[in-house]
Amino acid sequence: MRDNPLVLHVLGARPNFVKAAPVVGGLAELGIRQGIIHTGQHYDALMSDVFFADLGLPEPIANLGVGSGTHARQTAALLTGLEDVVLEHRPALVVVYGDVNSTLAAILVCAKLHVPTAHVEAGLRSFDRQMPEEVNRVVTDALSDLLFATSPEALSHLAHEGVDPAKVHLVGNPMIDSLFAALPKLDPAPVQERLGIDGRYAVATLHRPANVDDPEAARELVDAVLGVAEQVPVVVPLHPRGRQRLADAGLVDRPHLKIVDPLGYVDFLSLVRGAALVVTDSGGVQEETTMLGVPCLTVRPNTERPITVTHGTNRLVTPASLPAAASKALADGAATPSGELPPLWDGAAGPRIARVIEAWLRGDSLSPAAKGALR
User: Fold this and answer.
1) Domain-located, residue 181
2) In terms of domains, do 247 and 118 share one?
3) Can you give the pTM of this predicted structure?
4) Model confidence at 366, in pLDDT bands (50, 70, 90)?
5) Which of 25, 171, 192, 338 has the fewest Cβ atoms surrounding its Cβ within 10 A?
6) Are residues 114 and 49 in the same domain?
7) Does residue 88 belong to any structural domain of this protein?
8) Whether 53 and 95 share a structural domain
């Protein structure tokens, strides 16, 4: 173990910040030196900066400010920016999160520079290579030195792909750690009052390329959301990605449909906690609604988080089936997760990850028994 090794975290989008906060906190408890690289992939302050305050994250040591663009242009900017920062700081380990372009770029840079990496949320698969996130997941897991899995099915996916099991650790879900920590602050009433919401309502979050990039698909999705709004008022915190295309398709303020700017972490989860229904195409929201017991309809043909369907409150729907599915969910009322919650979704994933990283920095290899002790 080198003296005073440095661990860097690469964060680019809302879910990255939420997953990283418990890991950063766990490493800080162990006295490990660390720093955050904010790539600026989410360049809107409401999509990134506010999360540092909400989650108690330290100020980043670098902000690349790459902004938006095509996958190629954004990834190219990330590659050059990250290479400079990694070369400057020479970390002992770089930790990446999830499946965004910042994650892919960091893995590629570190692989070329022979800098070890760890992937938090390894092994999730939708088995749909049309999703850019799926490509990012597969490449990231193939090149990572430590792989932290959030659910049991991820272990089998990694084994099928030939990943050395010694690299893989089932640690639980750090996004749930952040949710547990925030629970005392999740009060829907102030957010509802500020947004002018009275009574029962649904929340919708929509940004996936398959749903918003094609004008015809966007129109079909908007028509489906309008079908939900005929049954219950719908609040849409609108992601910058695809905002104009969705507006062109008719997703604008109208009776029973309220478009608002992106919300901070606590405000958004407070709004979700008070909702009768959530409509989404986001991965993280599927997990958050599972833990909050809020009915969730995911407008996608597949999910890399099937555990939210088998153990949670999530259901996959098409745009055509969305209004009817919403009607049923609203009639059924508040959801409760089916059976036990997913394994190790207990609010302690961050410290588990931190202990594995500490052992790895010391050069210790963890036996299966030692891995089990970490849980």
Assistant:
1) no
2) no
3) 0.92
4) low
5) 338
6) yes
7) yes
8) yes
- Confidence band, pLDDT 50/70/90 cuts, at residue 364: confident
Tokens of 257: 């449909």
The residue range of the domain holding 197 is: 187-332
Strands of the sheet containing 117-122, edge to edge, are: 62-63, 33-38, 6-11, 93-97, 117-122, 146-149, 168-170
CATH number, domain of 135, equals 3.40.50.2000
pLDDT digits (tens, 9 = 90+) for 98-114: 999 999 999 999 999 99
What is the count of structural domains for the chain?
Answer: 2
For residue 168, what are the β-bridge partners?
Answer: 147
Based on the fold, state whether residues 87 and 235 are members of the same structural domain: no
**pLDDT bucket at 369, cuts 50 / 70 / 90:** very low
Q: How far apart are CA 34 and CA 66, in angstroms?
A: 22
168 and 199 both lie in a single domain? no
Dihedral sign computed on CA atoms, order 15, 16, 18, 23: positive
Amino acid at 103: T
Cross-strand bridge partners of residue 94 = 8, 117
Whole-number Å distance between alpha carbons of 101 and 147: 18
Query: Across the strands, what pairs with 170?
Result: 149
pLDDT in tens, 45-77: 555 667 788 999 999 999 998 877 788 999 999
Catalytic residue numbers, as ranges: 207
Which residue is associated with the tokens 């094609």? 214
Residues 219 and 354 in one domain: no
